[in-house]
Structure formats: structure tokens, C-alpha cells
Amino acid sequence: MIKQLTIIGVGLIGGSLARALREAGVVDEVVGGGRDAAHLQRAQALGVITRYTTDLAAAVQGADMVLLAVPVGAMEVVLRAIAPQLPADAVLTDAGSTKGSVIAAAQRVFGALPAGFVPGHPIAGTENSGVEASFAELYRGRRVILTPTTASSAEAVERVRAMWQATGAEVMEMDAEHHDHVLAATSHLPHLLAFGLVDTLAKMGDKQEIFAYAAGGFRDFTRIASSDPQMWRDICVHNEPALLALLDRFEVDLKRLREAIANGDGGYLLEVFSHAKAARDRFCDEN
Ligand code: NAP
Q: I need a labelling partner for 147 at 20 to 30 A (CA). Which of 114, 174, 192, 264 fits?
């Protein structure tokens, strides 16, 4: 199905895609591109990629499919590096967690968006980074959202869809702006809160004692604060409007919770907690 897949950024996301497609037998050659030769060499030694180069323009030469799986803050510089050598008939996609910012970067680099450009985002991941953390089953049974632009050709969309389906993922399409609002709510805000809470606690004078008594609840709530700080900085900065709107809304609700505690308003707390429990239980039953 794919003759040469070039992956720029062979980490958790790029490496897992390469592993899944190679396991499914739907790709002939996987070329890795990145900044760090030692990391790429490791990816080759692990059997994730066939060959590699740190020359990004050279990496895309001969590719019929190109995936960008670098932090969203690095997308523009990578697009600029590959643009001169990107084959005219290659399909270009990405795995970035924000979509509006990647499309805007592509617009700045290409001028008119190419017909072969199909932005995407796999809704799958772990708090671990790097090729060592990658595994072939990451996308099985998970969702991948494609956010085609008005310029994306139907054929390119179909090829990206087929690639992700070969990993066992369910593929859906969404408008990029809608994607960024939905993901701000379900992913970006929770990460921001987890990082923020752990930072607040870690700055407290008696933090040794606090962490000594931390149990399952703390571990569950803060697991995602072990995620890569640079990646999440990039995501928060590049989804500013959607994240700010949601933060404003959450601030109002948090203030209301604070008032309830200050006023001994257990009824309000019970109402909020019961509503939240029902919503989460329903989500867990359905997923
Ligand atoms: P990762 O494991 O840290 O991998 C990122 C890769 O990008 C590394 O191989 C890194 O290589 C390379 N890289 C970083 N900056 C670069 C640059 N300027 N030029 C070239 N290569 C560069 O991160 P990941 O979790 O796979 O995330 C990759 C993308 O997928 C991000 O856009 C992220 O938002 C998105 N995503 C992540 C998740 C998740 O849960 N992790 C889920 C869905 C989507 P070197 O450091 O070796 O140079």
C-alpha cells in the first residue's frame, strides 16, 4: 500500500505508527528523519525504521507518504525544511495534537495549501516519549481524527484514512477548529491542571510530607503530569483561543466550588460530585 513512508520525528507516535504498519505488512520502506542521529540509530536498531537521515529534505525524497510527528511548535520549521524536496504526488500528514496551528504553519510555508496535505491527530498516547516507548498496538481500537482542509484531495484523504485503518484505528473527520475545541476540553485542559496542581504542591514547604502520604487518588489524577513538558508547552501555546475559553469557564466553576466550601454548602458539592460521577461512569462504560 505504501512504498516509502517517511516519518519526521520517530518518537512514541511516529515509532508506533511505523511498527503497526510494518507488522500489518502494508509498507515497504520506512525512512526516519530527525535532529538526533543517535535517536534515529536506536529506532533503526529496534527495527522501527529501515533507514534514516538528519537531512530532512533528503528524508522525504522518494516518499509517497510523509508523516510529521514532531512537537507542534516544531511543525513550521520542519515543513520549511522538507518543502523543497517534497514529491509532488506525495501525501503529507501529521499527528500534531493541535490542528489549526499546523494548518496555519503549512499555509505560511506553502502559500496555497497542497492537495496532498491531510492534517490528522491520533487520539492515543501514553505519558512516555521517545522511540523506546513506541509499540505496534498503540492505535488498535483507538480513534484518529482527520481534519482535511478545503484544498485536500479526496484521494489523499482516502490514503491517510487507509493508513490509519491498517493500524486498527477508527478514523473520523472533523473541522480543524472544532477539533481544537474538543481536544482543549478532553486533553489539553486536563494536562494543564495536572501539571499545575503537582507544581503547586511541589512548591509547598511541607511537600515531603504531602508526597509521602500521596495514594491512588493522587497517582490517578496526576499521571499525565509525567508527560513531556516541551510537548505540552507547545500544545497549550498553539491552542490558545480554545484553551483560554475553557479555562475561563472552569475558573467560574472552581470559584463556585470554593464558595460552596466556604459557606458549608454540602448540597451544592453533592450535586456537582454526583453529576460528575454519573458523567464519568457513563464515559467509562462506553469506552
Ligand atoms: P516524542 O516521543 O517526544 O517524539 C517526538 C519526536 O520529534 C522525537 O523523535 C524528536 O526527535 C523529534 N523532534 C522534536 N523536535 C524536532 C525538530 N525540531 N526537528 C526534527 N525532529 C524533532 O513525542 P510524541 O509523543 O511522539 O509526539 C509527537 C507528536 O504527536 C506531537 O505533535 C504531539 O502533539 C502528537 N501527539 C502526541 C500524543 C501523546 O500522547 N504523546 C498523542 C497524540 C498526538 P529528537 O528529540 O531525537 O530530535
A: 192
Same domain for 76 and 193? no
Ligand 1 proximity of 82 Cβ (cutoff 6 Å): no
Same domain assignment for residues 28 and 140: yes
Check whether residue 44 and residue 89 sit in a common domain: yes
- Number of neighbouring beta carbons within 10 Å of residue 27: 22
Q: Give residue 74 CA to ligand 1 midpoint distance, Å.
A: 9
Range of the domain at 107: 2-174
State the total domains in the chain. Answer: 2
Residues 124-175: tens digit of each pLDDT: 999 899 999 999 999 999 999 999 999 999 999 999 999 999 999 999 999 9
**Centroid of ligand 1 to alpha carbon of 151 (angstroms):** 26
Identify the CA nearest to 237 among candidates 58, 73, 84, 40: 73
Query: Which pTM value belongs to this model?
Result: 0.94
Residues 6+ apart with CB under 8 A from 26: 1, 2, 163, 166
